[in-house]
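Marked as duplicate of an earlier ticket. Keeping the data here for the record.
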Amino acid sequence: MYERSLVLFIFLHPFHTLHPVMAQWGCTNIFCRAAAAWLPLLFSSLLWQTISPIHANPPCPRSCSCPGVKEVHCTFRHLTTIPETFPRDTERLNLGYNSLTEVEGSEFRSLRQLEMLMLHGNDISTLQQANIREPRLFEGLVSLIRLHLDHNLIDFIEPYSFSGLTSLKLLQLEGNLLKEIHPQTFITVSILGSFWTSGLK
């Protein structure tokens, strides 16, 4: 009870009034006074974090599951749109086998640790147009190694769609409606190790 009263008093009273009161309560040594000096700052910091959700890491989307650390599964959820936010430390994101028709890319831009993005088995027909002046489709995904876009309805990929994917090593596009690929599609992808597609002329 004594400790709780002391903590509450420190939090509610100004700093300059603490020392006389703590001395009255028997808190006179240097360690006790040092604690009194830092406790108001500590409580203020904790209170600020509590009332400032902007600093909090977004939770697992309600339409998905997060079975492992840094892993988000949104498969077979009949999704027609991509959830707006994901935990910022996500490394593996599976959005396969839904009813997605387009990818805007804004949902992924905060996922700088993302290493694998799976969008296979959807109804995606085009990838958002991007050029030198516009934000790139996968902008911010500097850690992405594997990108799965296979078994969609993609019939054309705009130039520069994969700009910014500086770590990309595997790209899967098989099972789409692609007949040709623009020469500038992979102009900024320098270390692509494996590229899987089918049906190209």
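See parent ticket for discussion. Strands lie at 71-73, 92-94, 102-103, 116-118, 126-127, 146-148, 170-172, 194-196.
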